[in-house]
Each structure stands twice: as C-alpha cells, then as structure tokens.
Design a protein that fits this description.
The complex is a heterodimer of chains A (231) and B (402).
Chain A: E1 5-14, E2 21-31, E3 36-40, H1 47-54, E4 62-67, E5 70-71, H2 77-87, E6 88-91, H3 103-113, H4 118-131, H5 147-159, E7 165-169, H6 177-194, E8 197-201, H7 205-208, E9 213-218, E10 221-227
Parallel strand pairs in A: 3-8, 3-9, 6-7, 7-8
Antiparallel strand pairs in A: 1-2, 1-4, 4-5, 9-10
Helix pairs in contact in A: 3-4, 3-5, 4-5
Chain B: H1 2-15, H2 17-55, E1 59-64, H3 82-91, E2 95-110, E3 113-122, H4 126-129, E4 134-137, H5 142-147, E5 151-154, H6 156-163, E6 172-175, E7 178-186, E8 201-205, H7 206-214, E9 221-226, H8 232-246, E10 257-261, H9 262-301, H10 303-315, H11 320-356, H12 365-391, H13 395-400
Parallel strand pairs in B: 3-8, 5-7
Antiparallel strand pairs in B: 1-9, 1-10, 2-3, 2-6, 2-9, 4-7, 5-8, 6-7
Helix pairs in contact in B: 1-11, 2-9, 2-11, 2-12, 3-8, 9-12, 10-12, 11-12
The chains are: A alpha/beta (231), B alpha+beta (402).
The structure holds adenosine-5'-triphosphate and magnesium ion.
C-alpha cells in the first residue's frame, strides 16, 4: 500500500543565481494515514519549508511528492488548488487571519469556497468555534483577540472543512502552557477518534510527546525519525 | 459561483470602508469634473451660437472710429448724416435696407414705475437691417417717420420692467420729457457677447429722436442689410470708397470709420468658442487623468495587503478564478457606484453653474458615457490586474509579500 504522504529526495532552493539558498537538501519522508507526526529541529532547518510544500502552498525544486499516491510535483496550479481545497487543513505559524473580519467569518471562508449552504456553514462554524472554545468570541475580529485566541481561530478554520490531513506549523507557539495542553489534547482526540492525519511543527518536546512519531530536521535533511517512547 | 463572488466582494468593500470610499471618491471627482466642464463648454457654445444668430446674416454695420470695441477713438471721429445714408442708398447697388441709428440714455416713466434705458432713433428699415422682429404690434409708418410722430416700439426688458404681465400696446410712455404711444414690442434677442442686454431698448422714429430727445442730427451708426446674392466684400469696398470721399479721408491709415460684417463677426465668435471648448476639454482630460491616478494610487497602495489576503484565500481553498471574480466584482461595484455618483454630481453642478453663469444647460450623453466608461475602466484595470498577479503566485509567496 502506498503511503498517505511521501517525499522522495525533495530539494527546495530559494532565490536564483548568487543569492540561492538550499532550504531542503534531499528529504525522504513517508507518513501513513492516521499518523500524528511532529517535526522538530533547530530554527532554519527547513521545517516550515517542508510543511509549505506538503500543504501545496509552495512547490519543490527537485524530487517527488506523492499525496495519496498522486504525484503532486506533476500537478498544475489549478489541480494543486483543488487538492488544498478538498484534502488539506493548514495552520500557519503566523495565523494569517483576514483583518477586520470576525472569527465567525474567518472560519466560514473555506466553506464559502466549498459551496456550502448558509445553514450548513452556520452549523459547521459554530461547531468548530465550540471545539476550540471560542463560541462567545464569534463576532470578534482578530484585532480584538489575544494571540492564543487567534491561534485557535486559525485551527478552527483549518478543521472546519474536515480535511484528510491537518498541517500545523507551531500551533502552540503563541500559547501559554495551559492553553497549549488544551490544543494538544484537542489534536490528540481528533487523531485518535477521527483518525485525522496530523503533521505538526514544534520546538517543545512536551508538545511532541502528544504525537506518535518525531521527525528531526537538521540543515535541510531528516536527521532522525523515531517513535515516541511510551506514547 | 457569481453569487459567492458578489457576497465576498461586498464583504470586502464593507470591511475596508476607507479604501472603498477613497477609490469611489477618485472616480466621482474624475467623472464629475469632466462632465461639468464639457457641459459648461457646450452651454457657452450654444449661447454664442444663439448670439450669432441674433446678429442676422449678411448684415453690415458702419461705426465711426477706426475699429470695433471699446477704447477706439470713436467719439473724436465725426458722426454720419442722413445725407450719407441717402448717398449709400443711391450709389451702392445690392442693398436691401439701410437704417440710421443713434442712441441716448433716458429715464422711462410709466405710472409709478421708472426705468433707465437706451433710447434709439432709427427707421422701419431697422427691422431688416438690424435683424429685429416684432412680437406684438407694428413698426412706424412712413407718415409717422416723416412727421416725427410720438410713437415708439419697446424691447422685452423694458416691457417686463414697466408693464410686467400687462400689455404695453397703446400705453403712453414718458421718455425723458415727452410722452409717446407704444405701438409695438420687439421679440427678445438676449445678451451680446459682451454681456449687454439687447432687449433694454426703446426705438423712436429718427426724426422724433432727433427733435424731441437728442437735439442734434448726428447718425452714430448705419445698419445695412444686403440682398441674398450679393458679395459682402465688394459692397464693403464700394461703401468704403464712397465714405472716404464724403468724409475727406486722404490717408487710408487714418480712416475715421469702420465697416463690420456679421459673417466675419460670427466667424470670430465661433472661433473663440471653439478655442474655449478645446481648452475646457483639455482641462477636463487632465482632471480625468488626475482622478484616474488617484484611483490607481489607492489600488496600488493596498496591493500588499490585498496580496496577503489573496494568499490567505488561496491557502484555505479558493481557486484562482474565484479570487479573480471576487476582485473583478468588487472593482466593478466600486467603479460603477462612483461613476453613477459622479454623473449625478456633475448634473447637479453643471445645472447650478450654468444657471449661475446664465448660459443654457446642454446635457451631453457622449461625454457622460465616456467619462463613466473611462473611470470604470481605470477602476477595474487597477483593481483587477494586481489581483490577477497575486492569484497566480504560489500562495506562500503571496502570503509573504511585504
Ligand atoms: N522565501 C524565502 N526566501 C529565501 N530564503 C528562505 C525563504 N523562506 C525560508 N528561507 C530560508 O530557508 C531556511 C529554512 O527556513 P524555514 O522557514 O523552513 O525554517 P524553520 O525550520 O521553519 O525555522 P523556524 O523554526 O525558525 O520556523 C532558512 O534559512 C530561511 O532563511
Ligand atoms: Mg518555521
């Protein structure tokens, strides 16, 4: 059986000519359906770069990427957009919420593009808001929400479409430890009960403990790939 | 899909009230400025055209002095005489009518109303030679002219000032120190190009004017109407030769009279307004351009923010064409809203201004559509093309844009 996600010798080079920078230097990685994987490693080691390529937000420079057996490196822009729309939920390191737009509307956005009816949208958004504990803040815009609350809006937006895989770039980076634990328990529950495949970047070993597998990045390569002891 | 685009576009407009307002404002100003200027230009042209028509065609006007207009030494030159008129009628062929003209200011009194007006002395030939028409009543008979009868024909302004809605016919009007019977009312002619009201007039038979009001026999101007087939240039030439002899002009550079031809004057006026209309059109073009640049600026200033927004939308599952539709709808809604408000503002402005400048209001559908279309185009182009660039980027590059 082919992997849910597979990177084969993936390279990513930023820039051109004299200012080229190799962010990924041959990454091999495969993830099975239902896994909960943490990506760790020093700053600048290429974790976000890998996540962006996984989320079809960026394209690789060399190598191959298979998503459920589909060769993503061979898809055009439109096909990658459809892949994002139907299968991927992405949580950004910097939230990327729409400014001056309420939490409700931010979370509703992906559903509008998916063509859901107003009633369905309302129901799903409320459900997602409830899951991240933000129902009372539905009408607030990002400007009037704390960093942690914005992070939870971003997570709710990624989850509201029931994606096949959740890609989260430092989802607890802006939260205090209590809130972080809440979020990790939420992800853990989704992984165990709904078999949601999750890939998460984190700097905190405590958070990585919630996943089943930790992939260590170092200088654009996978340095270490191991299961979580006692996880 | 279109419904979604509309929903998202309206959401974006509402969310960025200031940006939407400024974009719309640019369009409003551009559209309103152009339409207003061109409308005023057209109004002024229409007015001059009407004035040219009131001059009549194929008419000559002989003045003393060297030329036409204020500041020429008209007064120091000798006046004409009735003999000059006889001589012209006798010796120059191709004339339809020749009329003397002298004027003087006098106070008119009617009951308790009084009014200062220009009183002119001339003959029945003035109807043809001065392009006047009667609205009511009649002009002087030959007997009245020969005997210096106390009769007069008044202009619309005098009629309005002294009689309001009543009929002035058969009324006895005091002109200076004598009374005369009003036998006719002229049709309105409007203002001259120099802002003089041509309808503020009382016309007396020449003899009456000379004996009862002016106390002299000077003819200040001569009005001549030519027969249809006659060439104005050669008639002018013949009159010039005749008058030079009669007025003892030996050096043509010191000629003490001048002959004006309405066709020539009409040409001059028409050329002037044409120049003015071109000038207005140029100014209008500049303001449209400035409005366009304003719209462009606002659109470009917000490109970074919008690029990130587009990155976010793509990242959460929007397709390129959905993003483009949204931006196109947004640009179209803002531009047409601005264009519409601009048109309304322009109509109000040009209506008010033309009333204030007392020129006719002439609605010009062509320029209204052009201005609207141009501004809408600028709005759509500068709203749409940056969006298209962003929508074609990798979402992560759009998100990173600074
Ligand atoms: N758009 C870009 N252009 C040029 N270089 C880039 C770009 N994005 C990332 N890089 C470089 O690529 C390298 C890897 O960056 P990446 O963001 O993947 O690191 P990271 O592992 O996520 O780090 P962190 O833990 O700090 O988030 C860094 O050295 C970074 O400077
Ligand atoms: Mg990172």
């Amino acid at each position: 059986m082919s992997s849910f996600i597979e990177f084969r010798d993936v390279h990513k080079t930023y820039g051109t000519g004299a200012v080229q920078y190799q962010a990924l230097k041959g990454v091999n990685l495969s993830v099975q359906q239902g896994e909960f994987v943490s990506l760790m490693g020093p700053s600048g080691s290429g974790k976000s770069t890998a996540m962006n390529i996984l989320g079809c937000l960026d394209v690789l420079s060399r190598g191959e990427y298979y998503f459920q057996g589909v060769p993503v490196s061979a898809l055009d822009r439109h096909q990658r957009a459809l892949l994002r729309r139907h299968h991927i939920g992405f949580v950004f390191q910097g939230f990327n919420l729409l400014a001056r737009t309420s939490a409700h509307e931010n979370i509703e956005l992906p559903l509008i593009y998916r063509g859901l009816s107003k009633r369905e949208r309302r129901w799903k958004v409320d459900q997602a808001l409830d899951v991240v504990g933000l129902l009372p803040w539905a009408a607030h815009t990002p400007e009037s929400l704390s960093g942690g609350q914005q992070q939870r809006v971003a997570i709710a937006r990624a989850l509201v479409t029931s994606p096949a895989i959740l890609l989260a770039d430092e989802p607890t980076g802006n939260l205090d430890s209590e809130r972080s634990v809440d979020i990790m328990q939420l992800l853990s529950t989704l992984n165990q009960e709904q078999h949601l495949t999750i890939m998460m970047v984190t700097h905190e070993p405590d958070m990585a403990q919630y996943s089943q597998r930790i992939v260590h990045f170092s200088d654009g390569r996978v340095a270490d790939d191991m299961g979580v002891s006692g996880g | 899909m279109f419904g979604n685009a509309l929903k998202l576009a309206l959401q974006a407009i509402r969310r960025n009230v200031l940006r939407s307002f400024l974009t719309t404002l640019g369009i409003i100003i551009g559209v309103a400025a152009v339409i207003t200027m061109v409308t005023l230009g057209k109004g002024a042209t229409a007015q001059v055209t009407a004035q040219v028509a009131s001059l009549g065609s194929n008419l000559l006007m002989i003045n003393r002095g060297q030329g036409f207009g204020p500041g020429r030494d008209r007064v120091s030159s000798p006046a004409f005489t009735l003999d000059d008129i006889d001589a012209i009628e006798r010796e120059v062929a191709g004339l339809q009518a020749v009329a003397p003209m002298s004027s003087s200011n006098a106070t008119l009194v009617m009951g308790n109303n009084s009014w200062n007006s220009t009183v002119r002395g001339s003959s029945d030939a003035l109807l043809v030679a001065g392009n006047w028409q009667l609205d009511q009543g009649r002009i002087f008979t030959a007997d009245e002219q020969a005997s210096g009868a106390a009769v007069c024909v008044i202009g619309q302004t005098v009629s309005r000032q002294l009689f309001a809605e009543l009929s002035p016919l058969q009324q006895s009007l005091r002109v200076g120190r004598f009374h005369c019977e009003i036998i006719g009312v002229f049709k309105g002619k409007g203002q001259t190009t120099f802002g003089q009201d041509q309808d503020d007039i009382v016309l007396l038979p020449w003899l009456t004017f000379s004996q009862r009001l002016a106390g002299h026999r000077e003819v200040q101007q001569i009005y001549i109407s030519l027969l249809d087939y006659v060439d104005a240039e050669s008639v002018k030439q013949r009159i010039t030769t005749l008058l030079r002899i009669r007025r003892h002009v030996s050096n043509p550079a010191q000629q003490n009279f001048s002959i004006m031809d309405t066709a020539e004057l009409a040409d001059t006026l028409t050329n002037t307004t044409r120049t003015m209309t071109h000038l207005l059109a140029a100014v209008a073009g500049v303001s449209l351009l400035v409005g366009g640049i304003g719209i462009m600026n606002i659109m470009l200033v917000s490109v970074t923010e919008r690029t990130r927004e587009i990155g976010t939308r793509l990242a959460v599952g929007a397709l390129e064409r959905e993003v483009l539709w949204q931006f196109l709808v947004e640009a179209v809604v803002l531009s047409s809203l601005g264009g519409l408000m601009g048109v309304l503002l322009a109509i109000a402005l040009s209506f008010g201004l033309s009333w204030w400048m007392s020129i006719p209001y002439v609605f010009d559908a062509g320029i209204t559509l052009t201005a609207f279309a141009f501004s809408a185009l600028v709005g759509v182009v500068f709203g749409y093309f940056p969006a298209r660039r962003a929508a074609r980027m990798n979402p992560i590059d759009a998100l990173r844009s600074q």
